[in-house]
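Milestone 3.1: sequence recovery, worked example.
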């Protein structure tokens, strides 16, 4: 996401995006088009502006509505008072017409605010789940090794990392649905766990109806409460008698989450729970989660939510776990401090600083009081030969980096040249007298089409080269590629 944001920040074209990520929208857009009540409304600002402006417009509309009501009332009173008075007949008639002409202001029907609550979490032991020296590999792929981690009662923990870092794998191991290759997982006293993963929606019994499935959760809620909950998750009326097999992907996800809301759990392990949810359902679920008194381990890419919800972040990176005692912004801030420190160090230390900083409490991050290791283990000192090989590898990478940078410069110059040519052709096409020259129009249109085709290829090449460069530079800095 961060990479995409920085890429789009430098993108000179027009961007039209559909997104549920408020932070992304706040950073990227300068106009919001809202689709609601069969209408499109434009707001000239980012997402925060849109929310504030929507409130402001609503308040203004309410005031206008109150004024209008008073005016209507006065007009009606006038008509009532003078309707039988011949001298006022003309005025009464015009007031009646006036009344008919009023476009009565009405507020949009406000969507019902739904508040959901998890059942009170029964108390568990202080240490909820611990993993000791846990490693996991699939054949040749080592996902992570020697992870030590203890989750305490009441903690709200985020698992973060790039795609493929091993978050889902760790979540499955924590939930006991998958065995580690080595190491142990132990649960505290009275731990009652609910686990949500993308597969949860596939594990529903497709032949049952929604209502049947919900009733099998063993929830203490009565029928009305269950119906309310179903309604809040947009299953209302006869919908609840639908067979699960006919539900959409998003609806199945919703149902799987709803089952979690009904369980008496004190440990939730949630792997990207809100991925398929629309904004409204997502908010309902997230607000419920904020009020949850149990322990939560969550994998999510929703930065806005993580910021409000979690107090501990575990970053999975290169087969290791690093932890940060704070919310998501705290994690981002510390990580960029570390990256800056790594950049500032000499080549000699480059490949070790990040690891060393956290693992050994040394190096530039040693002063950070809250970063500490999960997976201790000092590295052996390097031999001369190892150092020589490393230097050779660095040289090789730096040669490739240079070549890639040159390629980027060439691509960028061709792109900007073509963009200028395209703008020029478009300018001529818009000239007032151009319709008199159909041949020219045809020729210009063809030229633009050719340019656009070439530009598309160039943009793709540019992206590929940038990506290669990024990977290469990460390799140069010690093999760490961040999300
Ligand atoms: N059953 C499996 N068999 C083989 N390889 C697997 C299996 N499950 C996961 N992996 C591999 O393990 C690595 C970690 O996968 P995992 O699903 O845990 O990543 P993740 O951090 O959850 O990524 P994402 O952000 O994309 O969800 C990946 O390289 C993946 O290909
Ligand atoms: Mg995953």
């Amino acid at each position: 996401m961060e990479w995409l944001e920085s890429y789009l920040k430098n993108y000179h074209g027009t961007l039209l995006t559909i997104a549920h990520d408020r932070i992304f929208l706040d950073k990227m857009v300068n106009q919001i088009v809202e689709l609601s009540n069969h209408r499109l409304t434009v707001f000239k600002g980012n997402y925060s502006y849109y929310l504030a402006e929507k409130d402001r417009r609503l308040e203004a509309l309410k005031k206008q509505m109150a004024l209008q009501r008073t005016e209507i009332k006065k007009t009606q009173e006038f008509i009532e008072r003078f309707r039988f008075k011949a001298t006022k007949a003309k005025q009464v008639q015009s007031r009646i017409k006036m009344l008919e002409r009023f476009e009565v202001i009405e507020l949009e029907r406000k969507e019902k605010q739904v508040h959901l609550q998890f059942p009170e979490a029964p108390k568990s032991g202080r240490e909820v789940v611990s993993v000791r020296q846990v490693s996991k590999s699939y054949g040749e792929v080592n996902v992570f090794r020697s992870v030590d981690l203890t989750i305490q009662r009441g903690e709200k923990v985020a698992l973060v990392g790039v795609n493929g870092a091993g978050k889902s794998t760790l979540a499955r191991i924590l939930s006991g649905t998958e065995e580690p290759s080595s190491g142990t997982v132990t649960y505290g006293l009275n731990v009652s766990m609910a686990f949500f993963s993308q597969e949860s929606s596939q594990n529903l019994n497709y032949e049952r109806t929604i209502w049947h499935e919900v009733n099998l959760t063993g929830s203490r809620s009565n029928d009305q409460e269950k119906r309310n909950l179903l309604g809040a998750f947009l299953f209302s009326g006869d919908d609840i008698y639908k067979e699960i097999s006919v539900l959409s992907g998003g609806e199945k996800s919703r149902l799987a989450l709803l089952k979690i809301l009904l369980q008496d759990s004190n440990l939730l392990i949630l792997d990207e729970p809100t991925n398929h949810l629309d904004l409204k359902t997502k908010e309902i679920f997230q607000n419920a989660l904020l009020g949850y008194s149990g322990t939560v381990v969550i994998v999510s890419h929703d930065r806005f939510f993580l910021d409000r919800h979690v107090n501990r972040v575990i970053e999975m990176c290169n087969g290791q776990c690093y932890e940060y005692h704070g919310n998501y912004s705290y994690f981002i801030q510390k990580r960029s401090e570390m990256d800056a420190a790594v950049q500032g160090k000499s080549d000699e230390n480059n490949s070790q600083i990040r690891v060393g900083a956290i693992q050994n409490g040394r190096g530039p991050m040693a002063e950070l009081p809250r970063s500490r290791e999960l997976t201790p283990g000092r590295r052996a000192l390097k031999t001369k030969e190892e150092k020589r090989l490393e230097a050779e590898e660095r040289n090789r990478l730096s040669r490739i980096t240079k070549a890639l940078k040159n390629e980027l410069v060439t691509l960028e110059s061709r792109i900007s040249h073509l963009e200028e040519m395209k703008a020029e052709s478009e300018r001529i096409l818009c000239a007032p007298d151009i319709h008199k020259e159909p041949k020219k129009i045809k020729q210009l249109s063809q030229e633009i089409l050719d340019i656009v085709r070439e530009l598309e290829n160039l943009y793709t090449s540019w992206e590929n080269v940038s990506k290669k460069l990024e990977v290469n530079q990460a390799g140069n800095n010690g093999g760490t590629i961040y999300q």
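Residues 384-476 form one domain. The longest helix spans residues 384-429.
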